[in-house]
Amino acid sequence: MTPLQLFPEQIANVLGLEGLLGQVVGGVIGAVFVAVVMLSMTALAGPWAKRKITAAFTDRFSVERVGPWGLGTIIVDSVRLLSKELIIPDGVERPSYDLAPLILPASAILGFAVIPMGDLGPFNIHLADPEVGLVLVFAFASIASISLVMGGYASNNKYSLLGSLRAVAQNIAYEIPLILAAMSVVIFAGTLQLGEIVAAQQTALFTIAGFEIPAWYAIVNPFAFVLFLTASMAEIGRNPFDIPEAPTEIVAGYQTEYSSVYFVLFYLGEFLHIFLGGAILATVFLGGPAGPVLPGFVWFIIKIWAFFLLTQWLRSAIPRVRIDQLIEIGWKGLLVLALANLVLTAVIVGVIV
To answer: May I have one GO cellular component term (predicted)?
Structure first.
C-alpha cells in the first residue's frame, strides 16, 4: 500500500474488495473508526478531563471517587444524564427543537472526513482529500451556528433566543478573520487541498546546531497563527468568547430549555467542535500529523489534545468579555489585522519568494 492511498482504499485492499463495493465498505469502516476515536476522546474530555484540568488550575479537588483517578465518572455521568426525563417545554417549534441537538455533533464529525490524521501502522488515516478540502472543513464547521440558531429560536425562551442571536453575531464577526488567516497559508502552499498543505510543511525551514526546524506555517507566519488561534477560540465558543451560553448573563443561552439526551448531544457537539478546531489548527499551521519517533496519528492526537488543554487553561484564567467587546474585537481588531496579514503575505510571496 502506498502512503498516498486514502484510508478507505487501504481497507478495501485489505478486504480484497474492488469497485463500488470496495469504496462503500472501505468508506463506512474508515468513517466508523474515525468517529469512534473522536467520540471516545470527547467522552474522556467532557465528564472527566475538563473537570480535572479546571481543578488543577484553580487548586480544587475534582472527580476522584468512582474508579481509578475518577475515570468511572465518565460512565456514571453518561447514565445519569441519559436517564433523566426529557422535558419538552410548551410552545417549542418542532421539529427544529428536536433537530438542533443532532446537527451540532454531526457537523463536527463531518469535518474530520477531510482532515489528514497521519499514519498508524500500515494505514494512512485520511478519509478523503478533495482539492477544496480547506473550504469544505470550514463549511462543515460553520453548520454549527445553524444548530445554535435553530435551538435558540425553537425553544420559545427569551434567553435561548438571545443566545442564538449572539452565536450568529459571533460567528460572522470571527469566521471572516479566521478564513483570512487561513488564506495566508493557502498563498504559501498554493493549494486548498489539506493533504498538500500538510506535505508542504514537511521540509526543514532551517537548521540550528544540527537540529532541523520544520517549515510549519506557525513558524513561517506566526502572526497568522496567533490570529487563527484567537478566532478559533471565538468560533468554538471558548473563554473569553463563550458569549452564546454566558451562564452569568442568560442562564445557559441557546441550550437553556434542553435536558436529558438533547443536552448530552449539545454537550457532545461542543467538545467535538473543540477537537475539530484543534485538528484544523494542527493541519494548517502545525504540520498536521508530523512529528519525530511516534506514528503520525499519535502526534495528531497529541496536538489536538494540546489545543484542548489550552482552551481549558484560558477558561480558568481569562474572564468572559461582554458582547459589545466581543463584536468590537472581531470587527475592529481581528478583521483589520487579518486583512493586513493577507496583503503582506501576498506581497512577500509574490515579490520576494
So the answer is: membrane
